[in-house]
Amino acid sequence: MTDAEHIVDRLSRQHIETQSWGYVSTGTRFKVYNTPGTPRDVHEKIDDAALVHRLTGVAPTVALHIPWDRVDDYAALAGYAQEQGVRIGSISPNLFQDDAYRLGSLTSEDAAVRKQATAHVRECVDIMTAVGSDRLSMWIADGTNYPGQGSFRRRRRHLEDGLRDAYEALPGHAEMILEYKFFEPAFYHTDIADWGQSLTLCEALGERARVLVDIGHHALGVNIEHIVATLLDRGRLGGFDLNSKKYGDDDLFVGAINPQETFLIALELVSAEDDADAAVSAAARSILYKIDQCAMIEDKIPAMIRSVTAMQTAFAKALLVDRDALDRRRVEGDVVGANEIVNDAFETDVRPLLARVRDRLGVPADPLAAYRESGEQERRNAERVGTPAGW
Ligand code: PSV
Ligand code: MN
């Protein structure tokens, strides 16, 4: 195989998970705008995910968030997804929208609240079994708003106990991916604020707990690709929540604000996939790439297509980097030369390469144009009358 064929081959195997809540109307705390054609229930969210997969060929799974996607019969829901051409992917519990969680969920001082939270996570583990999901995607919103409000160490112990309960209940083939976020909804401290907090919890739990990096969950200026490299080298990077941001946790579609950052993250990923250390490369090859974006004013399906194709673009450019030459220049101390190699790849127009990938996958060369011409949006606008689904 030539280098170009290798790249086409790798890109044809790319797998990006879209998320059910990315297809519905969400917004800021000021206003939620509805757009026409928005799904009214989980089946219609799955329909939209299936459409994105049909158009891109690389989005075969859809993440669910419980209770937003709660149904009576999960096996039937998995069957429905399969009929549409997709599978159900990761399951996210929701530990932030019940009145009981005002002072914390797994970290609460109240044993009854902690019990409610662990019972909900167990419900999600059962759903994983019913739908055949292999990832429990955990984000804990717990934190405090004022100095003195909580005991950091007692909260941390409760958190570890609660996470262990879920970890030990996981189906044999499954793993937990543990997200961090430094603020919001709490504004003084968050119990899992950064990658170090998450990593130490994962290490305490066991091999099947890995860190989830949400691109929007870092302070401005933080070097995310460096965090990614550190976690990759320890075999503890388990997943991504993909989006982009200008300021805080903006949840804009991928590549909209800083495509160079997305590319530099992808470069760390493809290089770890080829690492000589088998454990590092196996861990890198089993990362979940999940979109976690919110369509606040834009149409949801095209926004999702943009994110999926932005991830393809980032990986295509990362795969073009001549990593042997790059390493030589690093060793030689050729600062400008090393940067030039990275930059050359970033500036390459990879659209012809992606057209070859799409040809291989049997999908349209331009998924967004194909979507606009398909009439799918107009059909949805006409059919989906009534209350749209939301949070
Ligand atoms: C929190 O901001 C987060 O990124 C978590 O992943 C949630 O599950 C998701 O957003 C949905 O609100
Ligand atoms: Mn997230």
Average pLDDT score:
97
Strand order of the largest sheet: 4-6-8-9-10
* Ligands: alpha-D-psicofuranose, manganese (II) ion
CATH topology: TIM Barrel
Terminal residue distance? 47 Å
Based on DSSP secondary structure assignment, what is the total number of beta strands? 10
* Major β-sheet profile: 5 strands, parallel
Write the CATH homologous superfamily.
Answer: Divalent-metal-dependent TIM barrel enzymes
CATH structural class: Alpha Beta
Q: How many domains make up the coordinates?
A: 1
Q: What structural class do you assign from the helix and strand content?
A: alpha/beta
Task: Name the beta content range.
Answer: 5-15%
Q: Into which percent range does the helicity of residues fall? A: 40-55%
The radius of gyration over CA amounts to: 21 Å
Protein name: L-rhamnose isomerase
Keywords: Isomerase, Manganese, Metal-binding
Enzyme class: isomerase
Domain Xylose isomerase-like TIM barrel: 72-249
Outline the structure in words:
The longest helix is centred in the first third of the chain and has 21 residues. The chain has one domain: Divalent-metal-dependent TIM barrel enzymes (TIM Barrel, Alpha-Beta Barrel), CATH 3.20.20. The model has no long low-confidence stretch (mean pLDDT 97). The protein has 391 residues and is an alpha/beta fold. It is built from 15 helices and ten strands. The relative contact order is 0.14. Helix 3 links the parallel strand 2 and strand 3. Helix 1 packs across helix 13, helix 8 crosses helix 10 and helix 11 packs antiparallel against helix 12. 48% of the residues lie in helices and 11% in strands. The chain has a five-stranded parallel beta sheet with strand order 4-6-8-9-10. Strands 1-2-3 form a three-stranded parallel beta sheet. A two-stranded antiparallel sheet has the order 5-7. The structure holds alpha-D-psicofuranose and manganese (II) ion. Alpha-D-psicofuranose (PSV) binds next to loops.
